[in-house]
Amino acid sequence: MKIDKNINLSKYTTFKIGGVAEFFSEAQSKQDLLDAIEYANKNSMPLNIIGGGSNILISDKGIEGLSVINKYKEINIEGKLEEDINIENNKSFYNEGEYFKFSDLIDTNERDTQKYLVKVSSGVNLTYLINETLHQNLTGIQYFSGIPGTLGGAIFNNIHGGEKLIGDLIYSATLIDKKGEIINVNNNFFKFGYDDSILHKNEHILIDAQLILFEGSVEKAKETAHEWIKRKRNIQPSLPSAGSIFKNITNEEKEVIQAPVNSAGWLIENAGLKGKTIGGAQVYQKHANYIVNIGFAKASDVTNLIEVIQEEVFKKFKIELIPEIILKGNF
Ligand SMILES: Cc1cc2nc3c(=O)[nH]c(=O)nc-3n(C[C@H](O)[C@H](O)[C@H](O)COP(=O)(O)OP(=O)(O)OC[C@H]3O[C@@H](n4cnc5c(N)ncnc54)[C@H](O)[C@@H]3O)c2cc1C
Predict the structure, then answer these.
(1) Rg of the chain on CA atoms, in Å
(2) Quick one: which atom of ligand 1 is closest to the CA of 15?
(3) Could you tell me the domains of the chain?
(4) pLDDT beyond 90 at 8
């Protein structure tokens, strides 16, 4: 494992924003990941793991300690899952947004077909994972098509594709805790919530996970993936961004303000903020829950814009929008 110093991190993020990593390494294998964690522990430095960099904002002042780009990529179809397991479509905490629905594309029979366990390392890119598993005639993750990033980041935030959540598909996982000990856990460990998992709190590093996939209709799954990407492309910016900036509001908040949808974008739009620009950061015109980097944006432009949005939305609706993106480094 090679360790470099003072490497600019902006190119490792979809926002294309951010300062330097004090220490930097790329993990290509499980051993690299373990070595990186050991190095950080031995030198008593903070460890920061970055997957696809699609849900983070890195400070202009950079990040202290060791930043590791996770490129550990392995996929193994382990075989049939004979256990009779009921996979919930856990929607209890899911707030339907205005923009990303695809109820018409869901394969309602899929979860009743034969289940398979697939072991996937945390650095595997989601698009690659979807294509590879479909190629092996397994379905279930097509609903996350068009979402950038790695499996590690996806589990960290329990990503949502329409009303499907990645957390529902996790059978077990291997993690490393802060002391460098390897632990094996099952789904309950993660305490998956809306844009949330226990990884936000305990700073464990995900090494790999066993996913439950299905012998569903590959044709239908391919159609879903294709159509879903098409629909997302109509809304998502082509300029650098980090996806949705804020979490959607709860059903209770929606009722109080009598909003037609839970979408944070709706609140931002109705606070008159579409197109609002600070430095190189702009509220995206087509979908107000995105901030785009219109060129040379600093992290401080983004955080200033986030503050203005929060203030204006609060003034109008008395609701505090909670950022979905993760801030890294000193702000
Ligand atoms: C254009 C666009 C569209 C998007 N659409 C969606 C969408 O439809 N639904 C949705 O839910 N999200 C969406 N996102 C957000 C984002 O893509 C997801 O949250 C993604 O899963 C993040 O993965 P990543 O590998 O890029 O994580 P990163 O941004 O690299 O990291 C995010 C967090 O996860 C942690 N992390 C990463 N890997 C590990 C690991 N192995 N172990 C422990 N912690 C780890 C990081 O330390 C960081 O705190 C979108 C983003 C963009 C830019």
Answers:
(1) 20
(2) 53
(3) 4-70 (3.30.43.10), 75-235 (3.30.465.10), 251-328 (3.90.78.10)
(4) yes
